[in-house]
Amino acid sequence: MSEHPRGRPPLPVDGIFTEALALLAEGGIATLGMRALARRLGSSTSTLYRQFPGGKDELCTRLAEHMMSKIVAALAHSDLGGRWDIVVERSAVVTFDVLHSHPHSASLFAGQVRFGPMGLTRYERSLGLLMTTGLSASDAAAADHALARLIVGYALQSAEDTEESRATVIEYYRTLDAAQFPAVTTVVPALPEDVRSEFLFALHTFMIGLRDRADGSPGVAAGAHP
After folding, report:
1. Is 24 in contact with 107 (CB distance < 8 Å)?
2. Dihedrals phi, psi of 213, to nearest 5 degrees
3. Residue among 155, 158, 156, 187 nearest 174 (CA)
4. Which of 1, 139, 152, 211 is most buried, with most CB under 10 Å away?
5. CA 214, CA 221: separation in Å to the nearest integer?
């Protein structure tokens, strides 16, 4: 007996995910509805619900896992260096860039996420690496979660960051009275070019603190630092 005896045949899952990400890019998580996705696919909502019985919640969960698979693949094909801190920092940049390349996809990770196989793979590797530095289990978990929130937070903002919006803000700052706002008007020419630049600064600063934390941990793994 056919798995789908009635209605239209199932749609290719990769195609569903591609169109779902396109919907996300257009308007964020609010635009990602089953009806809107069905229209975009030229299909029916009943066909989608047969493949995603849990509706939008299931779609978002599986789409998050799809994005995680892209992140894991990108990490596997990246030169992450050898030292633990370089690996952590470069991995964060790769992860940010994958999310940034799919606007609003970071919203899939904005809440508490129950990881699928790919997410668990990344989580396991990250925690394992952090614990080789001598960090306690609780510190390693806290560091991983803080780093994830840093990445997701900036990736969420990057979806709204445009040259036009940034130029508008800078132009507003330039109209301020320098006598009343000397610090603001002084830094305007030195403002970061985009959210990615701000993220890199925040990440670098985070890593300074994480290295110090690892250095101060008892039993730091031999060879963890040059």
Report:
1. yes
2. -65, -45
3. 187
4. 152
5. 9
First-residue to last-residue Cα distance in the chain: 63
Which residue bears the tokens 């370089």?
86
Q: Do the beta carbons of residue 16 and residue 51 sit within 8 Å?
A: yes
Other CB atoms closer than 10 Å to residue 110's CB: what's the count?
A: 14
Q: Specify the residue for token string 């005896």.
A: 5
Report CA-CA distances (Å) from 70 to 77, 119, 160, 172.
Answer: 11, 11, 22, 39
Q: Which domains does the chain have, with CATH numbers?
A: 83-215 (1.10.357.10)
Residue 8's pLDDT is what? 67
- Written as six digits, the tokens of 147 are 């780093």
Cβ atoms of 65 and 30 within 8 Å: the answer is no
Could you give the CA distance from residue 153 to residue 110 in angstroms, rounded to a whole number? Answer: 8
